[in-house]
Amino acid sequence: PVHRTPEIQEARLKLPILAEEQVVMEAINDNPIVIICGETGSGKTTQVPQFLYEAGYASSGGIIGITEPRRVAAVSMSQRVAKEMNLSHRVVSYQIRYEGNVTDETRIKFMTDGVLLKEIQKDFLLSKYKVIIIDEAHERSMYTDILIGLLSRIVPLRHKKGLPLKLIIMSATLRVEDFTANTRLFSVQPPVIQVDARQFPVTVHFNKKTPLDDYSGECFRKVCKIHRMLPAGGILVFLTGQAEVHSLCRRLRKAFPYQKNSTAGNAVETTLPKIDLNNYSVVPPDEGDEDRDFDSDDDAAGSDLDLDLGDGDSGEDEKSDSSLPLYVLPLYSLLAPEKQAKVFRPPPPGTRLCVVATNVAETSLTIPGIKYVVDSGREKRRCYDRITGVSSFRVSWVCQASAEQRAGRAGRTEPGHCYRLYSSAVFMDFEKFSAPEITKRPVEDLILQMKALNIEKVINFPFPTPPPTEALAAAEELLIALGALKELKQQLAAKLSCPISPLGRVMATFPVAPRYAKMLALSRQHQCLPYTITIVSAMTVRELFEELDRPAGSEEEAAQLKGRRARFLQMQKVWAGQGPMQKLGDLMVMLGAVGACEYSGCTREFCEQNGLRHKAMLEIRRLRGQLTTAVNSVCRDAGLYVDPKMEPPTEAQVTYLRQIVLAGLGDHLARRVQAEELLDDKWRNAYKTALLEDPVFIHPSSVLFKELPEFVVYQEIVETTKLYMKGVSAVEPE
Ligand code: ADP
Ligand code: MG
């Protein structure tokens, strides 16, 4: 029996899915596979696990597993469900790549989709689970897709064994044909339960004009207008990245300062932002409105006209107004968890909440009390070349489905408004849905995992949407080059059916990309393992260093940033080591930075002083621990442990490390263009790679930027103004 507090019980009863509990549970009892569709915020993630628990699916030792594509969601949802059910974290737990709080008592387990895929490797039938819920299936993350494919086979196998497993797929949109209409995936079409969205109407206001570049400024002006003119209610702004989020937060805080200790903070709750009634009359929106209204663009009629703020170029002044405190919070995935959690708490009395977010706030987290959404219509995506793996971050238009999700965030608790900073004509040109991740990125890590599951003919796998054949071929070729797959005779290899090699099996046990796994598998000699583990952890976690080139909000901040940048450059030289060590380049810097940080106890102060991202350093620490355990278990005599006082490597070890790095990143080799080859000026200081026609360059942030060694290997190529190599190391190929 579950004992919920009266407050929780009351909040639950408001969720649309509660009304469907019986329908949902009957469908699950009667069918092995069920699909549940329901608007974000309808209660799928927090309630369905509770229904199952109360129906006895976790009794007699079984576990209810829920997968999430995002780490933030796995952690925060497990905490929420534990709280709602009044159960301890020992019973409602989470596991993400680097950490978790799962115990023997765990009955409801939230995890990232990648974690469950690893578990399938250890126990293909997932025997300890009674139910698997695949959440946020509409996001079509690569691991979610692959799990659905695998589970389509595991469910019948478990049935045959007389130990049935239930599979529940949950999606925020109704677009599930890729799952339902795919007979290779599910030969019997699973029932789809639709949870009626008890959303309040959201009125959508399009801009007449579409700002082409300064959408951030446009967001600022729109928020100012909403805050000055419209009734109480939280504002949620969608921007594309961390730097933009911070810069808008700064501007808004300056315009509407909120002092923690000001009297406003102690005032009674009713001091809402003032509305200037002389300039403005507020008419409440018509509650009877049907769903959402997309037609208010050029239309001058309608009861919402008074809330239509028009396009924002009417000279909003930026002078600060402390009589209207705005409680501004940033939200993005790299933000420290304790800062992320702030958005769930009510804002201080007398202030209005304004969350400036990236698309993490789109479907996985529901922020309470949002009445106004300001949508820039853009998102930042990491785009890959499927074959070369070259990636670039591009700001592009969202798809229509995302724009609708964003708008929906305004109608959770009362009727709301969404201000789209683009015209309805531009919206009509958006793609309807974005393509599944699996079709857009290199798949070598996925293919290695699949081969480790003895799925040799990956091309026959029941993918919800298959990756392009050329991406499969590129992955298979790389894995053969790394020695992870046994090369078969030519004509067989062309059919993409090479089996895994013993080395590949070892590599597949490390939770890192195949290139890095190869480096780990090679590091037994010369006591290099602790160093390789550290370098691989740092390369996997990414974004170790704080962005110190960011634009400053004030002169004071600019001076401070300049000082920190100078300090960082100094430290970078120290970490890069001396003499032959310097040849390891950026990887030596990573090693040195992690070593120094651990030596100092990995404190926040040390990180701040030295330009390191504290959250990244903590993740590296966890991943080092995890990789150390993984290495010890394949190589029983290694006896490794994570040493916080790790000595720097010797010269001989550095030489050996460079060979290891070359073995792992061998296909990422680049040769400096020689003077006699310099026919075109665009090749000045450039490198030539095997995969690309175009010149590539060492990124200016690299310690080897001035050095220009003849041969280098790189961690990745990122395209900005040019093709830049990052994570660069000098090598001497044989
Ligand atoms: P869905 O999965 O259908 O999108 P959820 O189950 O995530 O819906 O959310 C249901 C409700 O639970 C939402 O109103 C949301 O605001 C609330 N909720 C979720 N997490 C928290 C939290 N940490 N604190 C307070 N409320 C929360
Ligand atoms: Mg959810």
UniProtKB/TrEMBL annotation:
<feature type="region of interest" description="Disordered">
    <location>
        <begin position="278"/>
        <end position="322"/>
    </location>
</feature>
<dbReference type="GO" id="GO:0005730">
    <property type="term" value="C:nucleolus"/>
</dbReference>
<keyword id="KW-0347">Helicase</keyword>
<dbReference type="GO" id="GO:0005524">
    <property type="term" value="F:ATP binding"/>
</dbReference>
<feature type="compositionally biased region" description="Acidic residues">
    <location>
        <begin position="286"/>
        <end position="319"/>
    </location>
</feature>
<keyword id="KW-0378">Hydrolase</keyword>
<protein>
    <recommendedName>
        <fullName>Activating signal cointegrator 1 complex subunit 3</fullName>
    </recommendedName>
</protein>
<dbReference type="GO" id="GO:0003723">
    <property type="term" value="F:RNA binding"/>
</dbReference>
<dbReference type="GO" id="GO:0016787">
    <property type="term" value="F:hydrolase activity"/>
</dbReference>
<dbReference type="GO" id="GO:0000462">
    <property type="term" value="P:maturation of SSU-rRNA from tricistronic rRNA transcript (SSU-rRNA, 5.8S rRNA, LSU-rRNA)"/>
</dbReference>
<keyword id="KW-0547">Nucleotide-binding</keyword>
<keyword id="KW-0067">ATP-binding</keyword>
<dbReference type="GO" id="GO:0004386">
    <property type="term" value="F:helicase activity"/>
</dbReference>
